[in-house]
Specification:
Aminopeptidase; globular; 202 residues; 7 helices; 8 strands
Amino acid sequence: MSPAIDYSNARHAMIPPRSTERFARPRLVELPRPKGEIVHTHDGRELRLRNIEPGDEAALKRQFSRLSPEDIRRRFLHSMSELPDSMARRLCRIDPAIETAYVLMDETVRPAELRAVARIFVDESANSAEFSILVEHDWARQGLGALLMQRLVDDCRRRGLDEIWGYVLIENRPMLQLCKELGFVRRLTPDEPGTTQIALQL
C-alpha cells in the first residue's frame, strides 16, 4: 500500500495572497525633508535660508564670536563683549505670534555655521514691526541683506501690518543705502544721537 500523500502544504502554497496584499502599494520610508531653501550669493556660494530654531543657539554664539566690534555696534547699537547664554537662548526661541526670524546657514562646513540672521518683532498696538538684520563681514555685499529684507517685508505684509521700521547707525551706510533703494524713508531721532530711524509703509 502506497503511503498517503500530504497535500496540505501544497494546497497552502497554491493559495494566492489576499487581494489587499497583492495590490497594496509598497511601504515607503519617510525621509526627513530638508528645511528651508537653497540660495546663492553673487559670487556663487551656497546657503540655506530657513526659520531660526532653538538648536541654533550654539551657532548663534559662534557667529557672535566672529563679529568685529563694529559689526556688533551696528547690530545691537552698543558695544558687547560677548553674547550671554540667556540672550542667545531668547533669540533662538521666538514667539511666532509676534516674531519672525530667518537664518542663512552655511552647510558646507561642519558644524553648519550661521552667516546671517534677520528678524522682526511686532508691536501689535501700532500694527507695525521693528526689524534687525546682521550679515557677517565676509558674506556682505553679496545680496543677502536685500534678500532677507524682502523676506521680512513679505512676512509683515502677510501679517497685515502697516509698517516695518528699524534703528540704524548713521555710520552704517550700506544698510541705509539698501533701505533707500527698497523705498524706506528716514526719520529724525533727536533722542538717539548717531542713530536714525528708517521706515517703510506697507
